[in-house]
Structure formats: structure tokens, C-alpha cells
Amino acid sequence: MNFFEVMEAMVKEVEQVFTEIAKDVGEMIDAFVDASEEMVEQMQITFETEIEPRLNEFIDPILEAYLGFEIIVEETTQPVTHTVEPFLNDHPACVGCRHYHGQVYGGTMLVCGMHPYGWEGEKCPDWESVWKEDHSS
């Protein structure tokens, strides 16, 4: 055997060793990925069946209380905001009207549902008081 034949045989052996290592590493990675997928799936099932219901039991009453409080605050302050905000937004015909909305969407204010840009005159024909009238007496 000459030098080149020895080198060629050695290169083939090294190449075969690397090929086997690459194959083994690929199989290990595939097994790791499969195990990871199973673990993630089991974690998701555990979360959905055990953790999420307990979280909901804890969070739902808090959200209900918060949303209820927000509605009460909005209803309580509505007469004041509907009396002050139209002045601030230069819509005097809307002062004290229950239909006043006054929110900005995409840079354009929606004054109310009947008159999206507000009423131009002094007295709006659709004006209704935001102050609740007491009819009990």
C-alpha cells in the first residue's frame, strides 16, 4: 500500500465515523423534539383542566366588581360630564343632553348618534336632559 491509498482509507473511515455521529445526533434531536412536544401538550392540558378554572374562580369576581364599579362611576358622573364636556368641546347645544357622546375616533369627534358633528343651532331638536327627573311626588 502506498501513502495515497492509506490516506484514502483513513479519510473513508473518518467520514464513516462522522456520518454515524451525525445520524446519532439527528436521532437524539428527533427524540428530544418528540419529548418536548409531548411535555408541552401535557402542560397545556394541565393548564386548561386544572390551573385555568382556578384562575377564573379568582379573577372573575374581581373583574365583575371592577366592571360594576366602572359602570356605577360612569352613571354617577354622566350628568356632570355631559354638562361640562360639551362646553369644553365647543358644542353648547349639547350641554346637559343625554345623547352627548363626545369621544374621538380616528381623529374625528362623534358628538352624538343623531348629530355626529354636533348641532349648529342654539337648540337641538333631539335634546333630552341627562338629569333624571323624580316623578315620585
Helix/strand-derived category reads mainly alpha
Taking the sheet with the most strands, its summary is:
2 strands, antiparallel
Mean pLDDT over the full residue set: 82
Poorly predicted ranges:
none
Radius of gyration: 36 Å
What's the end-to-end separation, in Å? 122 Å
Count the DSSP helices. Answer: 1
Shape: elongated
How much of the residues is beta strand, in percent?
under 5%
Helices, strands, pairings?
Blueprint: H1 3-88, E1 103-105, E2 108-110
Antiparallel strand pairs: 1-2
Describe the structure.
This protein has 137 residues and is mostly helical. The chain is 63% helix and 4% strand. It contains one helix and two strands. Strands 1-2 form a two-stranded antiparallel ribbon. A hairpin with a 2-residue loop joins β1 (103-105) and β2 (108-110). The longest helix is centred in the first third of the chain and has 86 residues, at 3-88. The chain is elongated. It starts with a helix and ends in a 27-residue tail after the last strand.
Task: Record keyword descriptors for this entry.
137 residues; mainly alpha; 2 strands
Could you provide a short overview of the structure?
This protein is mainly alpha-helical and 137 residues long.
